Amino acid sequence: METLEKVLDSKTEEARLYVDRVFSSVKERNPNEYEFHQAVKEVFDSLVPVLAKDPSYSKNGILERIVEPERVISFQVPWVDDHGTVQVNRGFRVQFNSAIGPYKGGIRFHPSVNTSIVKFLGFEQIFKNSLTGQPIGGGKGGADFDPKGKSDAEIMRFTQSFMSELGKHIGADTDVPAGDIGVSAREIGYMFGQYKKMRGQYEAGVLTGKGFSYGGSLARKEATGYGTVYFVEEMLKDKGLTFQGNTVVVSGSGNVSIYAMEKAIQLGGTVVACSDSNGYIYDEAGLNLDTIKRLKEVENKRISEYVKEHPQAKYINDCTAIWEVPCNIALPCATQNEIDEYHAKTLVNNGVLAVGEGANMPSTLEAVHVFQTNGVLFGPAKAVNAGGVAVSALEMAQNSMRLSWTFDEVDAKLQQIMKNIYKTSLDASYEYGDPGNLVLGANIAGFKKVADAMISQGVI
Ligand code: NAP
C-alpha cells in the first residue's frame, strides 16, 4: 500500500507538471511578452500546493483559463498637437477576468506601454482585487503616449481621443478604469467629461480617481501610498518593530511615492531618498516633503530641482543607484523591475529589514529570491499596493449610494482592508506550508476566491 507521504508527493508532482505545461503554453502563445511571462511565473510557482490539494482546479482548466484575457482591445488614438501636426498613438484595454466583479484597473500613459505591460498589470490585478475582499474583477489599460512636456491642451485632446474609443467598452457595471503612471485626477477628469458627452448621461461609477467635486472619494489620492505603509507597518509589528527611528528609501516621486513618504514620516520614519526616472535625491537628515510635493504636484518639475532649495541634499543622476543608499525599509514605488538581483543584494548587505512593493512588480524574480532567502520581510505588490484599488471600490460604493464619506472614514476603512489583506496572506502562507512567505500567501488567497467563482459559474 502507498504511504500517505507518497500520495502527497505524487499529487505535488502532478500539480508541478500541470503548472509547467500551462506556463510553457503561455510562453509559446504569447511570444516576446516577457513582463507577462514573469507575472504568470510568479503566481504559478506559488500555486503548486493549492493545486495539489484540490484537483478541481486542474479538472476545470482554471490555469488555462485564468491566463487568457476575456477580451483584449487595441485601438488607434489619433490627435493633433499644438503645432497642428497629426500624431497617432496606440491604446489598449485588457479585460482580464470578471469572475468576481466588473473589470477594474488603471490606465497608464507611458511610452513603454505595450501588450505585454498591459497584460502583466491586468493579470496581477485579478489577484490584487480579489485580496481586497471587494467585488471587483481584473483589468488594465493604457497608451504608449508620453505626457512629459505636453501642454494641458495636448493632454486634453489626446485623452478625449483615447476615451472616444475606450468609452465603447466600459461602464459602471462592465469595466471601471482608474489612474496609473501618467494618469492622475486631471486626465480622469477629461476622460469622464468625454464619456459623459458620448453617453449623454451622468454615470459617476464608470471611472474612479475622480475629483471630489464630481464624485471622487476623499483619500483616493493618498490610498496606494498610505496603504503601502499600513501593510509594511503590519509586517514590522509582527516582529516587534515600527517605522519609528528607521531610515526609509522610497523610489519615484509620483502619486504612490509621495503618499508613501507622507505616511512613513507621520509614523516616525526618516525618508532619506526618493527619485524620478532621471536620478535621485539624498539627505541623511531626511527629505522635506513639502518641497517635493510643490515641485512635483504643482510645478511639474524634475526632482533634481530639489537641491537648489536644499543645498545640503545631494542629487545623483542615476535613478537605479537609489538602492545603494543604506536603509532599514525600502519602498519601491516607481515602476516594474526597478530592483534587480544586484540591487537586492546591495540592500541586504546594507541591512534592509523590510521591503514593501508600492509599485507593480518592481522587483525581478531573482531580487525577490534574494530578499526571501536573507530573512528580509518582503511584501509583494499585489498585497502591498492594493489600497489604491480598494479605495477605488469604496468610491464606486459611494457613487452607487450617492453619498460621500469623510477622509477619516475612508482612511479607517483603508487601514482595516490593509490589515485584512496582511492577515489573509499570512494565514494562507501557514495553511499551505510556507509560514511567513507572503508572496505565496497572497497569490494563493487571491487565486482561490477567483478560481472558486469561475468553477461555480461554469465554463463560459
Ligand atoms: P506616477 O504618479 O506617474 O509616478 C511614477 C513615478 O515613478 C514618477 O516619479 C516617475 O518619474 C517615476 N519613474 C518612472 N520610471 C522610473 C524609473 N525607471 N526609475 C525611477 N523612477 C521612475 O505613477 P504612480 O501612480 O505613482 O505609479 C507608480 C507605480 O505604482 C506603478 O508601478 C503603478 O502601476 C503602481 N500603482 C499605482 C497605483 C495608483 O493608485 N496610482 C495603484 C497601484 C499600483 P518620471 O516623472 O521621471 O517619469
Automatic annotation (TrEMBL):
Protein's UniProt name: Glutamate dehydrogenase
GO biological process: one example: glutamate biosynthetic process
One cellular component (GO) term of this entry: cytosol
Binding site for NAD(+): T224, N255
Stored SUPFAM superfamilies: Aminoacid dehydrogenase-like, N-terminal domain, NAD(P)-binding Rossmann-fold domains
One Pfam family cited in the UniProt record for this chain: ELFV_dehydrog
Keyword match Nucleotide-binding: yes
Keywords annotated in UniProt: NAD, Nucleotide-binding, Oxidoreductase
Domain Glutamate/phenylalanine/leucine/valine/L-tryptophan dehydrogenase C-terminal: 217-458
Family annotation (InterPro entries): Aminoacid_DH-like_N_sf (IPR046346), Glu/Leu/Phe/Val/Trp_DH (IPR006095), Glu/Leu/Phe/Val/Trp_DH_C (IPR006096), Glu/Leu/Phe/Val/Trp_DH_dimer (IPR006097), Glu_DH (IPR014362), Glu_Leu_Phe_Val_DH (IPR050724), NAD(P)-bd_dom_sf (IPR036291), NAD_bind_Glu_DH (IPR033922)
Site feature location: Important for catalysis: D180
SMART domains recorded: ELFV_dehydrog
Organism field: Alkalihalophilus pseudofirmus (Bacillus pseudofirmus)
Binding site for substrate: K104, Q125, K128, G179, S392
Signal sequence annotation: none
Family that this chain belongs to: Belongs to the Glu/Leu/Phe/Val dehydrogenases family.
Gene Ontology MF term list: glutamate dehydrogenase (NADP+) activity; nucleotide binding
Assembly, per entry: Homohexamer.
Taxonomy, superkingdom: Bacteria
Active site: K140
